[in-house]
Amino acid sequence: MKVAAQDRYGGPEVISIVERAKPVPGAGEVLVAVHASTVTLADCAFRKADPFIVRFFGGLFRPKLDVLGDDIAGVVAEVGPGVTRFAAGDRVHGCTGASLGGMAEYVCVKESAALVKVPEGVDLIPLGGMSYAYLTAMPFIRDEAKVKPGDHVLINGAASSVGAMAVQLARHFGAEVTAVASARHRALVERLGANHFIDRQSADFTHISGAYDVVFDAVGKSGFKDSAACLKPGGIYLTTVPSWGIFWLMLTGGRRGSKRGRLATTGLRAETDKLKDLHILNRLLEQGAIRPVTDRTFPLDQIVEAHRYVEREVKAGDVVVTMPVAEAPLLLPGGGQQAPA
Ligand SMILES: NC(=O)c1ccc[n+]([C@@H]2O[C@H](COP(=O)([O-])OP(=O)(O)OC[C@H]3O[C@@H](n4cnc5c(N)ncnc54)[C@H](OP(=O)(O)O)[C@@H]3O)[C@@H](O)[C@H]2O)c1
């Protein structure tokens, strides 16, 4: 099978497509024929080991996790002994878990992992990037911000993967949403439900005074000090990106006066919590309450270009990488065929 692997840390060019043996599912594992995965800024951080702390997870001197890809959408090709939750032919989406490996034609995933069946009638390919966006945005909007009807929520980086999902979730929870993005992304974020729009290149949202219950910086480009001015008394600032400023704030009580600030590390949540949230995601998809937002799709053999594009930080929504099987029928056990999703 083909995988996108890297034998050293560095720029996008360290990744190449190589042949590996197709894995065999062990007890309690499913073998997924991956149709789509995604490239995110987090993948770029792992690829180049920047920030340095990545090396404690990915390998100190060389990448031990040499095939990236935590988020997948695909079809179960085989199940290992003892698996009851899935059967061959099931369309699935979710996360591979700490061992990554999703940027490949096949990957083994534990049955207990954050993996769920795809609801009837939902396209498979766009889901390749959706679990990342959703599993990041949902804990921020629901658990940290506790968004409720009537809240005024500002989302900075509203067209990013995480931001585009946060706009949809905040609207789903009944908030009035102000989206901050570049003008070229205005139509998109308004289609996703934003009530108000600020063009970040012609206005600075941090100059607005006391207007928001929640400021969610989905791209971590602002700081608590500047953004706090926009918050109403009792409001909360949330960011996805670590900085000395937010660490210091959290170490010293997490608030200045009545205004609070927090960083959450959603990627490190327990698999069981992610799994519960993927079931909720399925219900939201079925209701049409949220939808995936795909910026571009790259075939696997253009993985280097996909990394270069993501690193430019200009995308709107997700970059999806498709595997060769997504272009061809899948042979099912017993000789049947499944059309590409
Ligand atoms: N805390 C966690 O556990 C966790 C989990 C997952 C991801 N993350 C982090 O979350 C961040 C967002 O990830 P993502 O995948 O959603 O990002 P992304 O889709 O790659 O972000 C691209 C967007 O960034 C916007 N942007 C670029 N520079 C900006 C600036 N100076 N101010 C405001 N917006 C700017 C662009 O918007 P416009 O072109 O519209 O300006 C573009 O739409 C990443 O840093 C990622 O590492 C954290």
Q: Can you describe this structure?
A:
The chain has 341 residues and is an alpha/beta fold. It has two domains: 2-129 and 294-338, Medium-chain alcohol dehydrogenases, catalytic domain (Quinone Oxidoreductase, Chain A, domain 1); 132-267, Rossmann fold. The protein has helices at 41-48, 54-58, 130-144, 161-172, 186-191, 224-227, 244-251, 271-287, 303-311, and strands spanning 2-6, 15-19, 29-38, 71-79, 91-95, 106-110, 115-117, 152-156, 176-181, 196-199, 212-217, 231-239, 255-256, 259-263, 294-299, 318-322, 330-331, 337-338. The strands form four sheets. Strands 3, 4, 5, 6, 7, 15 and 16 form a seven-stranded mixed β-sheet that branches. Helix 3 (130-144) crosses helix 4 and helix 3 packs across helix 8 (271-287). The radius of gyration is 20 Å and the shape is globular. Residues 337-341 have low confidence and may be disordered. Bound molecules: NADP nicotinamide-adenine-dinucleotide phosphate. NADP nicotinamide-adenine-dinucleotide phosphate is lined by residues 40-42, 136, 156-157, 159-163, 181-182, 185, 200, 218-221, 240-241, 264-267, 310, 313-316.
Layout: helices, strands, pairs:
Layout: E1 2-6, E2 15-19, E3 29-38, H1 41-48, H2 54-58, E4 71-79, E5 91-95, E6 106-110, E7 115-117, H3 130-144, E8 152-156, H4 161-172, E9 176-181, H5 186-191, E10 196-199, E11 212-217, H6 224-227, E12 231-239, H7 244-251, E13 255-256, E14 259-263, H8 271-287, E15 294-299, H9 303-311, E16 318-322, E17 330-331, E18 337-338
Parallel strand pairs: 8-9, 8-11, 9-10, 11-12, 12-14, 15-16
Antiparallel strand pairs: 1-2, 3-4, 3-6, 3-16, 4-5, 5-7, 13-14, 17-18
